[in-house]
Write a sequence for this structure.
């Protein structure tokens, strides 16, 4: 089912309960103490550098010593509650650890949060400590995701209540109305149900039933209660600082504003909340009359106090005492048994399957968030991708072997490509400084792409797992298309009204070209695997969803999408590498759908015209031919089309003009810096300085050449060509559908990237991670003796 579960044996006793290995207690030596002190000092200096020494100092000068002491005490109490919550969550998965181990794991996780994304830091830092107790990365990952879900729900509830008080009911209602929450919820729920119905086998269903059994409700309630108390303590720490900065403001308003800022700081889109917390504090506290400088100072003071608590506890993470020998005990009698607790390998498979399911459904939902002067596109699947990145790294580090792409040197090309981006970023910093687009979009986004690669690589432990991933993506893409189409039809017909419906058919991708590319990539891999579903009743699971996905490409009216689709369809029929009948059936069904959508809005007018012509023809048969259709026929046309086609002629030259401008100026930028490029973000920064509007280069290769140079572009070309060679080597082998799918994805990327910058499309890297890891995973499975499967 997945790469991890097949490579690790279960570590459990006969009853299925996890057994902690007994390790000889060790104490901190002089080297460990020196390392802990050095690490703490480096982290403190990094925090001060990130925030700014003057800003950090101003945050303390407006606060009295008693205020700081109260804030430190509140945040220390929250730290203790987080440790207690970790104990409860680990017990939910059948593990009992000591309080000292939970405290050390919490310290390690929060210390790692100071330098990396919150989710990644939590998983990696905790696992460094908990692995000595025999706890696997899958258990740590599951507990952390469970914890973050509870924290998000509690913080969102507090934040919504605070927003209603600070912004007012009307402002919150307008914000909620501007986002198609109901439409997205229906699409997401429908895709989730279809994916579960089509891919969940008896093993997955049994595991899901175990996870939601009533006996776990008590633990969930305890974790929620601890989270609510901890969140209240964090809010109180903000209030203490605000009372010193704005004593004239009423207490209820301070609590409400602090709840909103605390929720924003907890979102997993920054490093330990820095940046997001400060921007939110200036805006929200400013509505209460708090000056921007004081709002920033309070936010920085809370952040520094929280960091001080974590750094003060960080040496605990490196300590080992005699208590470590009993840090993990056997599960209790109620938690034992194969019925209550799966083995390590089965549990890992289940966690990876859930990650694959979540990412496959949520990857089609994009949310733009203004951040640090630019708009950062956050995908709802991003948190799960970051968790997968941590799990993937922990597994391969523990296995002491490189990732599964080592056989074709693709891993080396990936590392060189990431290094090239780092060098380009440094060149840009030296030439024009740090820009939000280069740092927040491109450099930070590289970690997200690695996360999606990790999801695909984790999920692939065999060809069945890859088929499941393809089926999940296909059903999710088709559901998103159908729901969005119904929303547009209902709005055009006047059945209901959706505020801020985009003019183009783009679903939830934020851009019709990005949406068309998503649909094309999914349709390509689905066509490669259509042979598997071509027999019997299962054929409908591929033909109809594939037709809806192709329909979405047509409705988007993306010229690049339509041209790429035509080229890929022609190549598929000529090469014969796909199931032609299934593809033809999908094309016919998509064409019929296009005809119905086009004719349906005109049916009332056509029927009315036919009826009036028939009645008038009974009395005046000669006038039927000579009389033009009545004016009422035109008046009965719908007020707005269901699908917006290409932009008006007046706007089309502007769009094409900007595209040609990006190509010509990008070429000139490369010629000015041919070897090492102008630096990451150079083109966007230059155009923004000159015109005041951002513009990207509408060609992926030209963008790489302009900002990375020929030297920096070479690793990216090596990665692409290496993937092509992997597919070509296996194209004629038995069971080579994955190689056909890989060539189709790469071909789709190559064609589409000629006129758009699509290197950062998440679906692309999700599928590449699975398709590129499959050859190595399959080889390792053939060389590893398989353990007998348990019955049931």
């Amino acid at each position: 089912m997945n790469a991890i579960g097949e490579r690790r044996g279960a570590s459990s006793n006969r009853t299925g309960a996890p057994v902690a290995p007994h390790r000889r207690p060790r104490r901190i030596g002089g080297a460990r103490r020196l390392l802990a002190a050095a690490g703490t000092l480096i982290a403190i200096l990094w925090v001060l550098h990130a925030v700014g020494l003057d800003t950090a100092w101003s945050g303390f000068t407006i606060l009295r010593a008693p205020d700081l002491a109260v804030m430190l005490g509140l945040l220390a109490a929250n730290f203790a509650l987080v440790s207690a919550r970790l104990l409860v969550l680990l017990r939910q998965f059948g593990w009992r650890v000591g309080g000292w181990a939970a405290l050390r794991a919490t310290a390690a996780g929060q210390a790692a949060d100071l330098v990396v994304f919150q989710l990644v830091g939590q998983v990696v830092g905790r696992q460094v400590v908990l692995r000595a107790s025999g706890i696997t990365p899958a258990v740590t990952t599951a507990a952390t995701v469970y914890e973050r879900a509870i924290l998000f729900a509690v913080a969102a509830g507090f934040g919504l209540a605070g927003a209603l008080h600070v912004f007012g009911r009307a402002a919150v209602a307008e914000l909620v109305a501007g986002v198609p929450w109901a439409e997205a919820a229906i699409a997401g729920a429908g895709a989730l149900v279809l994916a579960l119905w089509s891919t969940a086998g008896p093993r997955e269903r049994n595991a899901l039933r175990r996870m939601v059994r009533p006996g776990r409700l008590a633990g969930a309630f305890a974790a929620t209660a601890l989270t609510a108390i901890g969140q209240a303590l964090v809010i109180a720490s903000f209030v203490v600082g605000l009372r010193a900065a704005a004593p004239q403001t009423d207490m209820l308003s301070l609590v409400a504003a602090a709840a909103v800022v605390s929720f924003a700081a907890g979102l997993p889109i920054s490093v330990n909340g820095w940046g997001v917390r400060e921007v939110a504090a200036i805006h929200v506290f400013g509505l209460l009359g708090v000056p921007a400088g004081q709002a920033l100072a309070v936010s920085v003071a809370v952040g520094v106090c929280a960091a001080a608590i974590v750094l003060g506890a960080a040496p605990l993470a490196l300590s080992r005492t005699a208590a470590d020998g009993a840090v993990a005990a056997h599960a209790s009698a109620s938690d034992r048994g194969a019925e209550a607790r799966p083995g390590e390998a089965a549990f890992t498979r289940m966690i990876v399957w859930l990650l694959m399911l979540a990412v496959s459904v949520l990857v089609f939902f994009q949310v733009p968030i203004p951040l640090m002067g630019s708009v950062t596109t956050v995908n709802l699947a991003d948190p799960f991708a970051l968790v997968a990145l941590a799990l993937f790294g922990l597994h391969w580090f523990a296995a002491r072997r490189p990732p599964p792409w080592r056989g074709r040197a693709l891993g080396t090309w990936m590392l060189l490509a990431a290094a090239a981006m780092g060098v380009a970023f440094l060149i840009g910093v030296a030439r024009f400084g740090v820009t939000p687009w280069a740092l927040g979009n491109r450099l930070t986004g590289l970690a997200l792409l690695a996360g999606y690669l990790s999801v695909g690589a984790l999920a692939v432990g065999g060809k069945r797992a890859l088929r499941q991933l393809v089926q999940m993506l296909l059903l999710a893409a088709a559901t998103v298309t159908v729901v969005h189409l119904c929303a547009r039809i209902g709005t055009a017909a006047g059945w209901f009204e959706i505020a801020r419906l985009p003019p183009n058919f783009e679903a939830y991708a934020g851009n019709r070209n990005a949406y068309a590319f998503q649909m094309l990539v999914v349709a390509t891999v689905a066509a490669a695997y259509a042979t598997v579903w071509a027999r019997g009743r299962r054929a409908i699971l591929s033909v109809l969803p594939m037709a809806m996905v192709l329909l979405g490409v047509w409705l988007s009216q993306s010229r690049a999408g339509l041209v790429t689709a035509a080229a890929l369809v022609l190549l598929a029929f000529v090469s014969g590498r796909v199931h032609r009948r299934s593809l033809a059936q999908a094309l016919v069904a998509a064409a019929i759908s296009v005809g119905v959508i086009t004719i349906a809005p005109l049916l009332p007018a056509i029927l009315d015209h036919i009826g009036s012509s028939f009645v008038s023809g009974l009395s005046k048969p000669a006038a039927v031919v000579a009389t033009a259709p009545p004016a009422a026929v035109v008046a009965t046309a719908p007020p707005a089309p269901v699908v917006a086609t290409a932009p008006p002629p007046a706007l089309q030259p502007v769009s094409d003009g900007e595209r040609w401008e990006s190509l010509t100026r990008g070429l000139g930028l490369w010629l000015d810096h041919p070897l090492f490029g102008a630096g990451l973000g150079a083109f966007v920064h230059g155009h923004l300085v000159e015109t005041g509007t951002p513009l990207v280069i509408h060609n992926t290769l030209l963008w790489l050449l302009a900002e990375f140079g020929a030297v920096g572009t070479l690793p990216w070309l090596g990665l692409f060509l290496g993937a092509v060679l992997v597919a070509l080597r296996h194209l004629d082998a038995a069971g080579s559908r994955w190689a056909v799918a890989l060539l189709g994805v790469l071909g789709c990327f190559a064609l589409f990237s000629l006129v758009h910058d699509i290197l950062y499309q998440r679906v692309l890297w999700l599928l590449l991670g699975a398709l590129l890891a499959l050859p190595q995973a399959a080889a390792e499975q053939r060389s590893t003796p398989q353990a007998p499967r348990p019955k049931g």
